[in-house]
Design goal:
Low-confidence stretches: 1-48, 114-129
Order of helices and strands: HEEEEEEEEEHHEEEEEEEE
Shape: globular
Radius of gyration: 32 Å
Number of helices: 3
Distance between the termini: 90 Å
Strand content: 25-35%
Structural class: mainly beta
Number of domains: 4
Length: 310
């Protein structure tokens, strides 16, 4: 056989309308060697990856509690939390008292909000990107003097970041608002400056720092008013506890057998009549001494308990 003689043109493969092959125009082939190039080209075209369009990533959720300078969660019905970026994006959500245990606002931030040049990057919301939070109450604008957050998940799609906001003036930047420090100074007899009230100090000597007293809503000048959990006894194998609940705070009970691993414990209000149902948290709407019963599984002999306030 003459190696330079042309091979007969192969018949195009059978195809149905809509197949990849039906969209390929067959030109007279230019053969090299044994004439396999047209078929390799056809296979390469048929196997080319499709171009897909992906939707924006799920929202990232910011949530937390907005407090006034006395440490009390904001309860105003017209309060609004606003997030603003340098690109002009403005998102807002209402402050809802007792929205969840220890939470009074929740804001969903879309990943295509323009916080980074790439709308589909998984880190569209980052601490390095300029954005600010503010709170509108009754037509007045308040800027947080203190923000508390764990930024580990900030900006990740479908993740959440707790961002607590404290409104007011903090002239010495120690995390304690001036109004709260001045109230404590007055109760301690005066003669002090706001710089004398340190967050790590224990003004009343009850074992709780001033900062912890501020967050718990207890009085930092009264050692009998500290945030504590008293064990009163048992009721049909249910341990009975008592503590002072402060309006606007949410409380959870935890147990441990080794002080290393802590587990959330269901409890019910023992001081109500009839006894309440089991719950995982209690959101206080007033100030009262609260008595609770814990539900402890027999397989978990907890020896230590603690109360968490948010």
């Amino acid at each position: 056989m003459n190696p330079t003689a042309p091979f007969p043109s192969p018949a195009p493969p059978h195809s149905q309308p809509g197949d990849n092959a039906s969209r390929i125009t067959h030109h007279p082939p230019h053969f090299i060697g044994h004439g396999l190039v047209p078929w390799l080209m056809l296979a390469a075209l048929a196997l080319a990856p499709a171009v897909l369009a992906f939707p924006p990533a799920p929202h990232h959720t910011l949530y937390g509690v907005v407090r006034n300078e006395m440490g009390e969660p904001i309860r105003a019905t017209d309060a609004v939390v606003v997030l603003e970026t340098v690109t002009g994006v403005r998102l807002k959500t209402a402050v809802v008292p007792l929205l969840a245990p220890g939470v009074n606002y929740r804001l969903k931030v879309p990943m295509d909000a323009g916080l980074t040049p790439d709308n589909y990057r998984p880190t569209a919301l980052r601490p390095s990107v300029s954005f600010r939070m503010k709170v509108l109450i009754g037509g007045a604008t308040y800027l947080p003097i203190e923000t508390s957050a764990n930024y580990a998940n900030l900006g990740k799609p479908a993740q959440t970041t707790r961002l607590d906001l404290t409104l007011g003036e903090d002239s010495d930047n120690d995390g304690l608002p001036d109004a709260w420090e001045r109230a404590l100074m007055d109760m301690l007899g005066g003669g002090l400056a706001v710089t004398d009230i340190e967050p790590g100090a224990d003004a009343d000597g009850d074992g709780m720092s001033n900062l912890h007293e501020y967050l718990a809503g207890t009085y930092a000048f009264d050692p009998q008013d500290g945030f504590r959990l008293d064990i009163l006894g048992t009721n049909v194998e249910h341990p009975v506890f008592e503590f002072l609940a402060i309006r606007g705070r949410a409380y959870t009970l935890e147990g441990s057998a080794d002080l290393l691993t802590w587990e959330l414990l269901p409890f019910r209000i023992a001081s109500s009549n009839p006894v309440g149902s089991w719950r995982k948290s209690y959101s206080a709407s007033d100030v009262r001494v609260l008595r609770i019963e814990a539900d402890i599984p027999s397989a978990h002999p907890y020896q230590v308990f603690r109360l968490r306030a948010e």
